[in-house]
Write a structure and sequence with these properties.
Blueprint lengths: L1 H13 L23 H11 L11 E4 L6 H18 L4 E7 H4 L2 H12 L10 H15 L2 E7 L1 H7 L3 H7 L11 E7 L10 H7 L2 E4 L5 H15 L7 H12 L5 H18 L6 H21 L3 H11 L5 E2 H15 L6 H13 L3 E2 L2 E3 L5 E7 L3 H8 L3 H7 L1
Parallel strand pairs: 1-4, 1-5, 2-3, 3-4
Antiparallel strand pairs: 6-9, 7-9, 8-9
Helix pairs in contact: 2-3, 5-6, 8-9, 10-11, 10-12, 11-12, 11-13, 12-13, 13-17, 14-15, 14-16
């Protein structure tokens, strides 16, 4: 085994890579020019521009499906703003955090506090205590803050909207004239329906909607990345077209298109191929699908996992009432307090958006409307992810 590993490492060190810069194909990469998002860039820049005059800009929410450019546009505009504020020595800080990765409201505050230099321990402080330290740090330094909360719908749906309320009404608690302006990013166009009226009132937000990319736009985006990421003539045009077509079928997801291209390139390189072909793209699609399902199921909150377990354990389509009945039984057996049927119905819709289940609404005439729910993701991948949770292990045995 040791010799095999050495051979692998030697091949990497001595072989000729297909890539010039594979980081160009990472989600964190911010292009110098973002294609097909000029209108959104211009609008967001106009909304945030008052910060350069030390005035509080409006809170703004960016809506659109996964992979429509929301995050990269937000980070691009903030990068340009940061360059301009540095030139004019303005006391402004730009803070970014992904609430799904942070996973809890407290850890969101921990991430924000860390970037601002506020002393917030990883655990052991109350929410109000953590918030107070952030406000004190902002007030003491006289800093104005533009705060980006990515996937903010995850935070609200799985916890509550108290953090949003506190962050959008902090000025009375900050000493001096400093402010926090919020940029929220959501994959759910119905996100505001989850918010309390008092939160909606305090937000006073503007909105930008990002449409899905068309297949031709995805091809252009990929061609631009190919030029920067790969050596000349190593990616077949047909491979680029296939990446774009597969991503277009998933709501015009540019992130998926770029991931397909990167993984296809890595697979071709491992095989010692001198070109990335459609075969490599298809292998990449199968690999990414397995990983996507596993990661999506593994990162779900407990009650969403329970709902998914009910659907997974059935070989037939279930309606909403059947899912809720079985879910409530599991909660009772496990000593958990079940969520309301309305909340479980929302969870089913979220699982549908993630591509784990299919849940179309079916009309039954005078008997009303109900969802018909079935698993569409890889059953093995879902079960593997759910079995990592102790509460679900016995259920799936």
């Amino acid at each position: 085994m040791g010799n095999d590993i050495d051979t692998i490492f030697d091949h990497i060190l001595t072989g000729k890579s297909l890539f010039i810069d594979r980081d160009v194909l990472r989600n964190e990469y911010i292009p110098d020019h973002i294609l097909f998002r000029d209108d959104q860039i211009s609008q967001l820049a106009q909304i945030l521009a008052p910060v350069l005059m030390r005035s509080k800009p409006s809170n703004v929410f960016l809506y659109g499906k996964t992979g429509t450019g929301k995050t990269v546009v937000a980070r691009y505009v903030l990068k340009k703003l940061a360059e301009r504020t540095a030139q004019h020595e303005l006391n402004i800080e730009f803070v970014y955090t992904n609430t799904r990765i942070a996973s809890t409201p407290y850890h969101v505050l921990f991430e924000v506090g860390s970037q601002l230099g506020a002393q917030i321990p990883f655990t052991g402080l109350s929410m109000s205590g953590a918030m107070r330290r952030i406000f004190e740090r902002i007030g003491a330094s006289g800093t104005n803050i533009v705060l980006v909360l990515d996937e903010v719908d995850y935070l609200v749906k799985n916890f509550d909207d108290d953090l949003l309320y506190d962050l959008t009404r902090p000025n009375a608690d900050i000493v001096g004239s400093s402010f926090i302006s919020l940029v929220g990013i959501s994959n759910d166009l119905k996100f505001k329906e989850y918010l309390d009226p008092r939160v909606l009132s305090s937000l006073g937000e503007e909105e930008l909607v990002f449409p899905p990319y068309m297949v031709g736009e995805l091809e252009a985006i990929l061609s631009d990345r190919v030029r920067l990421a790969f050596r000349p003539n190593v990616v077949a045009d047909t491979a680029v077209k296939l990446c774009a077509s597969l991503a277009a079928m998933e709501h015009g997801d540019a992130r998926r298109a770029v991931d397909l291209l990167r993984v296809a390139g890595e697979l071709a390189e491992r095989e010692g191929s001198d070109q990335v072909t459609t075969d490599h793209v298809m292998k990449a699609a199968r690999s990414i699908e397995r990983d996507r399902v596993y990661e999506a199921a593994r990162s779900l909150p407990l009650h969403a996992k329970l709902v998914l377990a009910v659907v997974t354990s059935s070989n037939n389509e279930l309606n909403t009432g059947q899912v809720y009945s079985r879910y409530a039984e599991i909660c009772k057996t496990s000593g958990l307090t079940p969520l309301t049927q309305r909340r479980v119905s929302s969870i089913i819709s979220e699982l549908d958006v993630l591509g784990l289940v299919n849940a179309p609404v079916i009309s039954s005439g005078r008997f009303g409307r109900s969802k018909k729910i079935k698993l569409v993701a890889s059953k093995d991948s879902v079960i593997k992810a759910l079995r990592e949770d102790d509460v679900l292990t016995s259920l799936l045995s």
